[in-house]
Every structure is written in C-alpha cells, then in structure tokens.
Design goal:
Number of helices: 12
Radius of gyration: 21 Å
Order of helices and strands: HEHEHHHHHEHEEEHEEEHEHEEEH
Number of strands: 13
CATH class of the largest domain: Alpha Beta
Low-confidence stretches: none
Shape: globular
Helix content: 25-40%
Structural class: alpha/beta
Mean pLDDT: 93
CATH topology of the largest domain: Rossmann fold
C-alpha cells in the first residue's frame, strides 16, 4: 500500500515518514558527481528533458543564490540602527533577539518581512528556475518562507510552503489555526519608521539616516478575531498554525507524489542544508530509491551528496545554485 494512501496523516507527515524509514538503513552518503561539472550539467539537462514530472525541493541555498543574504552589506543597509544598539549582526539571529518591548520587536519584524518578502529578488534565480520547468508537470516544496516562487510566476497550486510565510500573521497561541495577510500592515509600519520609497517604489532609509526602531502602539498587530497578540506564521515551535491553505497545499503535494510513484520523475533538490533534511532531502532519496525510473539531482554549495544506493541514478552539482541553473538553461 502506498504511504500516501494513509488518510489520517497529512502529506507533509507522510513524506517525512517515508524519508525517515529509508535513512534508517543507510550506510553513508557519497558524492555522485563525475568530477566534470559540464558533463554533470549535460546529464542533468538530459534527465530534465526526458522527465515525465519534476519535483523541486528548495531550501535556503536557493534564496541565498537569488541574493537574499541575511548578513553583510544588505543587513547593514537596512538594520544599522539595530546593529548599533543591540549588536545584532544578521537578520536571522535578530529574529530570536529578546527585544525590550513589542514596539521595537515589531519594528524589527516589519523590516525583516518587507525586505525578504515584498521586495523582488536581487538575482533572477527563481525566474531562471521557472524557465527550466514551466513546460513540465512540476511541483515545488520548500522550507523557504520568502514567497519568491509565486513572485517569479510559479503556479500557486503547484507550491507547498511547509514552514510558513513571511507574508502571514497568526495568533501567538496558534489555537485557532487561522492566518491573515500582513502586507498593508508592513507598508504602514515601514513608513512609520521613516523609510521612504525610491523611484522604483522600494522603501529605503532617508538621506539623513534618521530612522525609528519604535512603532506606535496602534501598529502592534493583534488577531482580528480574538484580539490576542499576533505572531509570525513561521514554524519555530508547536504554536505554528497549519491553516486551511497549508493543509490544501500539503494534500496537493501528496496527490502529486502519489500520481508519480512510477515513471520518469526527476527529484531536483536545490540548496537544501542539513538543518531539516527530513522535510525534503530524505524523502527525495527514498522516493528515488523506490522508483527505478526516477532520478535524483542535488544542487548545493558544499553539501552536494546522495546515498550510495542511488548513486547510479543521481548527479550532485556543487557550487552556486544560481550558476548551475543558468548553466542548465544554456545547455538546452
């Protein structure tokens, strides 16, 4: 019986269950590249062209390749005041900082959301990826929360954001399992911090660099129904709200996988690290192992590897994911 027929579990749970069962019997992983990057790209392009279906699994490395870096110059450009006052050095760690009050905490999140959700990617990596698969039967599952797949034009019905969305709020308790859009709030909160829009309509610090890191009380978000405190719709603990949209996407993902348990399916893993391998990496390995006509590809900067059991039906391409995707386009 297919694991995806177990109706008492979500598609998300079922894929993880499949992956975890598989890795229990692994004896190690190997690099499955030939050592010739151009040859590996040509092989992957051939597998892409001949595939009946493509399952994309995307992690943080894909967004990093698209220019969504959380530290360095990009951080200093928009968060210099937080860096000076609190010693924060990147957007990720700042999300866990114990700010002294909600007025400052939500000013931080307004900026974090805006620059990582409502501003387009600096590099066209997502656009290039769509160009690769737009004529294929595809589905994309991602742990990224920056919404860049939809901004690039991927069909919403072919996407599953497993870990949440920067563009959604939920109640802090997560009890009601509902979310709501935060775009209007974000725009108002950015203006309240004295950011001004440039000629392209993108908020920038003013010329005098005098921005505020304190939101007025009226902009502290609360749940529209219960009026309890709001929170980001991000999977950081068991309060994460898996709303109706989340479950619908999970079911579509499971249905897609169930429909392609046989045939030439390409599992294209991009930029998935070792923090949460059970969500994408392990299930992709397991589903490739189960289907003798499937092929696994891993594009990763520094962590491109696969199990020895599937190395004859796999290719691992190291280096920048964006460059690999451009090379695949050029190899057509």
């Amino acid at each position: 019986m297919s694991v995806f027929s177990q109706k008492h579990k979500s598609g998300f749970e079922l894929t993880m269950l499949k992956g975890m069962r598989y890795v229990r019997g692994l004896s190690g992983v190997v690099t499955a590249g030939s050592g010739d990057r151009e040859a590996d790209i040509r092989l992957l392009r051939e597998k892409l062209d001949s595939a009946d279906a493509v399952v994309i699994g995307a992690g943080a490395g894909l967004s990093t390749a698209a220019g969504f870096t959380y530290g360095g110059e990009r951080f200093r450009r928009y968060f210099y005041d937080f860096s000076e006052r609190f010693g924060i050095n990147d957007m990720y760690s700042g999300g866990f900082y114990p700010f002294p009050d909600d007025n400052i905490r939500w000013a931080w999140w307004a900026r974090n959301i805006y620059y990582n959700r409502y501003v387009g990617a600096p590099e066209p990596v997502y656009d290039d990826l769509l160009a690769l698969v737009k004529d294929k039967d595809y589905f994309a599952v991602t742990t990224n929360v920056d919404h860049q797949f939809q901004k690039a034009g991927f069909e919403k019905e072919r996407l599953f954001y497993t870990q949440g969305d920067y563009g959604l709020f939920q109640s802090a308790s997560g009890r009601d399992k509902k979310t709501w859009d935060n775009e209007e709030w974000v725009m108002e909160a950015m203006a309240a911090q004295r950011f001004v829009k440039d000629e392209n309509g993108v908020f920038q610090p003013p010329k005098d660099r005098l921005i505020s890191m304190i939101l007025p009380d009226r902009l502290i978000p609360v749940c529209p129904g219960s009026k309890e405190p709001a929170a980001m719709n991000l999977r950081v603990d068991d309060t994460f709200a898996e709303d109706e949209g989340w479950h619908a996407a999970s079911d579509r993902y499971a249905a897609f996988l169930s429909g392609h348990e046989k045939g030439k399916t390409l599992f294209l893993e991009i930029g998935v690290g070792s923090n949460t391998p059970m969500i994408i990496k392990y299930p992709f390995w397991a589903m490739t192992a189960e289907n003798p006509d499937a092929f696994y590809a891993c594009l990763n900067f520094g962590e491109a590897a696969c199990p020895a059991q599937i190395k004859d039906r796999a290719v691992c391409v190291g280096g920048d994911c964006g460059r690999a995707i451009k090379a695949l386009l050029a190899a057509a």
